[in-house]
Amino acid sequence: MYNLDLATIALIAANVLVSMKGFNDPTFFERYKFSIGAIKAGQKDRMATSGFLHVDVSHLLFNMLTLYFFAGVVINWFGQTQFLIIYAASLLAGSLLALSFHKDEPYYSAVGASGAVTGILYAAILLQPNMQLGIMFIPIPVPAYVVGIGYLLYSIYGMKKRLGNIGHTAHFGGAIGGYACTLLFMPSLLQTDTLMVGLLALPIILLFVLGKMGKI
Known about the structure:
Blueprint: H1 6-24, H2 26-32, E1 34-35, H3 36-40, H4 46-49, H5 57-78, H6 80-101, E2 109-110, H7 114-127, E3 132-133, E4 142-143, H8 144-161, H9 168-185, H10 189-192, H11 194-212
Antiparallel strand pairs: 1-2, 3-4
């Protein structure tokens, strides 16, 4: 699970190099971060480039450690090419949902690989829902599917309450990307693990229901 594949090394290296450039060059950071106003003005490249920038070293480290821990699961099932597709699709799905959710907030901005990394995390959970995960402050391991569902429910709450300086919307969009790509690459899961596919879809369905009702 923790073996470093070339694809994982390449993504971590890209995130580190671009983030370091952003740390040392405010003009570069401002030009390539996710910004609603700039994207709507035509700078669509920000929807991808923002996923390689980070606010600080701790932000970068947290995302890269999460990627490191779960990339191997997805690569073992799908291989490096499909892993990279899931990563890219999740990054863009996170940006698209953030753009949709914050479309009337021209000064809204964000950075980070969290959307893409959450997509990899959710893909890994869908593939191995019963793997045990250690959670801070919880003394016993928790099944991965419980963590996945709980995390997305928290993301919905964070989106609704605008909690902290965190891109909850991008996280959720990334999870949708990871979930959809996993089913696209392995549709047999709909038959072999129907219950888990349905359970992991519940937060996604809830988000869209709340959105339609205007409650988020």
